[in-house]
Amino acid sequence: MTLNETFTLKDVKLMNKKVNYHGFFHVDELTFKHKLFSGGWSAEVKREVFERGDAVAVLAYDPQSDQVILVEQIRVPILSRIHSKHEQSPWLLELAAGMVEPNETPEEVARRELLEETGLEAIQLNKITHFYPSPGGCSERIDLYLAWVDATKAKGIHGLASEHEDIRVHVMSRINAYNKVVSGEIVSAPTMIGLQWLMMNYSALEVVVKSDTI
């Protein structure tokens, strides 16, 4: 191969796929070979993959007031980290987010989760990007959306009782939200990515808002 050669799906041979666990999540064991950068093929490799499904995260932003809407809820997996000096509470500040159900589009999920978790409807909805939060062991893909909202309507406690959700809404300035990323108070990866994107692209959004009001 050349140093500039790009590997694709054709450069992987899936030999076997076995389901090791199937519940709310499931774990697959994959046996495969792949081409090597140095040339030739690898030996057979076995890896376990955590199949979590696909998710959507929504950056709810009011361009008129320059505010973002975040949600706060308990995240039970964090309990195992509370002994660490780095984590003090399992309640996290996050973007509204949820899993993609069968026969749903990511955009439908974005609108549904925004309404369920914040009580807000998106005035405008645009996809920002997609990413894999932990590709070394998990197949989950997250689609990140920007929702323009009216922050004056954001308040109260939300979530589905049937899913034991207890979600508190927070409205704060874009700068304040980003400062919580810098200080380490916000540690949810999709939330950090969304707020960093907003800081990088705020000027362009401001131009769009001004042009829409002319």
Task: Walk me through what this model shows.
The protein contains 3 helices and 11 strands, in the order βββββββαββββαα. The chain has 214 residues and is α+β, with helices and mostly antiparallel strands. The strands form 2 sheets. Strands 4, 5, 6, 7, 8, 9, 10 and 11 form an 8-stranded mixed sheet that branches. A 3-stranded antiparallel sheet has the order 1-2-3, with no helix packed on it. A hairpin with a 4-residue loop joins strand 4 and strand 5 (67-74). Helix 2 (174-183) packs antiparallel against helix 3.
Can you lay out the helices and strands and say which pair or pack?
Elements: E1 12-22, E2 26-34, E3 45-51, E4 55-62, E5 67-74, E6 91-94, E7 96-99, H1 106-118, E8 124-131, E9 142-148, E10 157-158, E11 167-173, H2 174-183, H3 189-213
Helix pairs in contact: 2-3
How would you sum up this structure in a few lines?
The protein has 214 residues and is α+β, with helices and mostly antiparallel strands. The chain is built from 3 helices and 11 strands; from the N terminus they run E-E-E-E-E-E-E-H-E-E-E-E-H-H. 22% of the residues lie in helices and 35% in strands.
